[in-house]
Every structure is written in C-alpha cells, then in structure tokens.
Design brief:
two-stranded antiparallel sheet; 14 strands; Herpes Virus-1; mainly beta; about 220 residues; zinc ion binding; 3 helices; zinc; elongated; zinc-finger; SH3 type barrels; binds zinc ion
C-alpha cells in the first residue's frame, strides 16, 4: 500500500515564484508573515508535496526568533540568532519568499561577512514550555554571560577567558588598539581563580507555562 494519499505527489524541488531560486527538502526558507510589518518567518523545509491540481504544500519545521520565544530576547542573543523549534506546520509554498542559510554557531563566528541571508542556531527550542537544548552554556567575562557573537570581546593572555571591553572599563576603540590584554584578576597579585560557571538558559518555571502555539 502506498503511504501517500491519492492524487498527492512528493516533489524534489520547488521554484520560488518570480525568482530563479530552487527550494529542496532540507533547505532553509524565509516565509511571508500574515502581518507584513513583521520580519519573515524562518523555516526548515521537511517535505514538498503537490496535490492533483498542482497546488504545492510545504511541510516545515519553524525556527523561532528570540523575541518569539517564551523567555523573550536576552542580552546574549545575537541579532541573527534563531532557535530550531519542535513546532511543525504545513503551509502553501506560495508563502515562501526566499532562501537563507542557518549556520552552526561555530561556522557563523567564522564568517568574514554576515549577509542578510545568514543566520545561526545554537539552541533547540520546545515551543510549548520555552525550554532550550542545551539547557546550559558556557559563560565569559566578569558579567558571566553566554557569548553574543555581535559583541566584541578581548581575550586575556593569562586566563584565556574572554571579556567585554565595557566590563573592563575600556571603550571598544581602546580594546581594538590593544596588542596585549590581561584581565584585572590576572594583572593583580591576587591569583584567586574564578569558578567556571555556566548559565541556565531556560525560563525557571518552564513547566508551569501553558502550551501556546503561534497562529499563522
Ligand atoms: Zn562582560
Ligand atoms: Zn585573565
């Protein structure tokens, strides 16, 4: 028995209307929001399917922007950060307006230039509870915050930790001119080591939050 319903056909690719761009399963796409004032939604294409009248439907897995998450945007979230959610949906392929690239965090930090189509993802996100995977990430600097790739940091030659210039009482211009940098702990005689901490990412009451799905 065939698993597909009668009249439905899996497609290998879909051509975005009015462009020469081709979307295939596994690609990341920008989708037109119903409210045109909002930035486009970002999704990963799972499957493309045409019905008997050649209407193309796309099964997607949504990426959430930090402001769309239950915990909201935090100081360490990058401007181009996305969370890979557990929220799947079926949409008309007409809502696809472009393609984008969602990089791993490591690859994103190595990009020479960040183009409008470049995003990154370091967390998976549970849409119902607001929980993140991984749940804890490394922290840096005196302020003990996770790394935000949009913020300049300088590395201490002593402890190898990374620091925000502002947390060290420097301007960004001063930090850029530095050839050597020692943090205040390493430059003082007192060599008490700071504990290696991690940052708890998920909202503390994640299990108490009602399950809410975004309306599309
Ligand atoms: Zn800092
Ligand atoms: Zn140091």
């Amino acid at each position: 028995m065939a698993k597909t319903k009668p009249g439905k056909k899996d497609l290998d690719s879909y051509n975005i209307k009015g462009t020469n761009k081709v979307v295939r399963p596994g690609d990341c796409v920008l989708m037109r929001p119903s409210d045109s004032d909002k930035p486009p939604y970002v999704a990963k294409v799972e499957k493309l399917e045409a019905d008997h009248r050649n209407n193309v439907k796309v099964r997607v897995r949504w990426y959430y922007r930090p402001e769309e998450s239950i915990g909201g945007r935090r100081q360490f979230h990058g401007a181009k950060e996305l969370f890979l959610s557990d929220h799947f949906d079926v949409q008309s392929a007409h809502t696809i307006e472009g393609k984008c690239i969602v990089h791993s965090f490591k690859n994103y930090t190595k990009l020479e230039n960040v183009g409008p189509e470049d995003y990154f993802c370091r967390f998976e996100y549970k849409a119902a509870t607001g929980g993140f995977t991984p749940d804890r990430v490394a922290v840096y600097c005196k302020c003990e915050m996770p790394y935000n790739p949009d913020d300049l940091m300088v590395q201490c030659e002593g402890c190898k930790d990374w620091f925000h210039p502002s947390c060290m009482g420097m301007t960004i211009e001063e930090a850029k001119k530095l050839e050597h940098f020692l943090c205040s702990d390493c430059s003082s005689e007192d060599d008490t080591k700071r504990p290696l901490n991690s940052f708890h990412v998920s909202p503390p009451d994640e299990l108490k939050v009602d399950s809410k799905r975004r309306k599309r």
